[in-house]
């Protein structure tokens, strides 16, 4: 695995602009990855001292200090188009922490390598596994972290750790986490990136763009409560939480983080006001 001394330096900043932001009740919401000013190719080429990086700015967009997002292709989920999104965090040791990886391309590979050597790859719930194998093949030394149920579901994947409420020592000083228990169908680990005060949520809160849905699919997803800024947890998943006390305790821990920003896997992220957004989205608990 190639490591660059430059990956230990602080990446150039690319913070949100207001062009694509919308406000509702004082909460600013942006598409994710948004049409923010991204890390420019020229800046990154200088930063990496001439190392070829391809169109890196198009692959990773900075969401906050040492935190990036990247979108992958949409996948079919029971006939509904679901966009895919991943997160990359650069830890204090210079390594890259990868959350819910999307399909790996040469351009994305170079972009992630520019952040740092990949040492930890995380799946937040047991249905986010489609692209784990290719990432494990590309970075065989990286540790794979599975949520409850995934190791049994995908025995062909080599997992090193099962995720729970306690963050791994590799990222405990920078990223917190909590497991939403109580569902017989699906449990999810929610993360909190301390340097950027960002909550990172996978399927537990969905805020799909209605413009990307048509006809009866848009109507059905609205009925399911997962469209737009008022998006929440799919209703069928809510019904699977037969024991809500553990999930309520997890919600209180998330709100106690007081996150400013929010990244979701499906739909609009928020560059501010994350705590009231999550409080409203998880009020059904």
Name a few traits of the molecule.
285 residues, Metallo-beta-lactamase, Chain A, alpha/beta, 4-stranded mixed sheet, disordered N terminus, 14 strands, 25% strand, 9 helices
The number of E-state strands comes to 14
Helix content estimate: 10-25%
| Mean pLDDT score | 78
Multimerization state: single chain
User: What is the CATH third-level topology name?
Assistant: Metallo-beta-lactamase, Chain A
Q: Termini separation (Å)? A: 44 Å
Q: How many distinct folded domains?
A: 1
Detail the poorly predicted runs.
1-31, 33-57
- What is the CATH superfamily classification? Ribonuclease Z/Hydroxyacylglutathione hydrolase-like
Structural class: alpha/beta
Largest sheet: 7 strands, mixed
Radius of gyration over alpha carbons? 18 Å
Architecture, CATH level 2?
A: 4-Layer Sandwich
Order of helices and strands: EEHHEEEEHEHEHEEEEHHHEEH
CATH class: Alpha Beta
Task: Record the strand order, biggest sheet.
Answer: 3-4-5-6-7-8-9
Q: Which range does the strand content fall in?
A: 15-25%
- Spatial shape: globular
The number of distinct helices, counting runs of at least 4 residues, comes to: 9
């Amino acid at each position: 695995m190639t490591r660059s001394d430059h990956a230990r330096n602080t990446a150039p900043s690319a913070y949100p602009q207001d062009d694509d932001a919308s406000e509702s009740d004082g909460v600013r919401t942006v598409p994710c990855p948004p049409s923010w000013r991204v890390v420019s190719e020229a800046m990154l080429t200088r930063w990496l001292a001439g190392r070829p990086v391809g169109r890196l700015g198009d692959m990773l967009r900075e969401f906050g200090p040492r935190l990036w997002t990247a979108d992958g292709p949409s996948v079919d989920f029971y006939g509904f188009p679901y966009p895919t999104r991943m997160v990359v965090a650069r830890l204090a040791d210079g390594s890259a922490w990868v959350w819910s990886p999307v399909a790996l391309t040469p351009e994305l590979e170079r972009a992630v390598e520019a952040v740092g050597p990949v040492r930890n790859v995380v799946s937040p719930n047991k249905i986010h596994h489609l692209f784990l194998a290719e990432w494990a093949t590309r970075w065989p030394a990286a540790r794979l972290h599975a949520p409850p149920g995934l190791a049994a579901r995908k025995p062909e994947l080599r997992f090193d750790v099962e995720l729970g409420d306690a963050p791994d020592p590799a990222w405990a000083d920078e990223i917190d986490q909590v497991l939403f228990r109580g569902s017989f169908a699906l449990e999810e680990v929610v993360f909190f990136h301390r340097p950027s005060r960002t909550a990172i949520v996978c399927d537990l809160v969905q805020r799909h763009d209605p413009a990307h849905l048509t006809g009866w699919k848009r109507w059905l997803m609205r009925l399911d409560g997962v469209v737009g800024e008022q998006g929440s947890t799919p209703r069928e998943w809510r019904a699977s939480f037969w024991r809500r006390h553990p999930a309520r305790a997890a919600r209180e821990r998330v709100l106690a983080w007081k996150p400013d920003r929010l990244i979701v896997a499906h739909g609009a992220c928020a560059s501010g006001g994350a705590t009231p957004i999550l409080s409203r989205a998880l009020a059904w608990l």
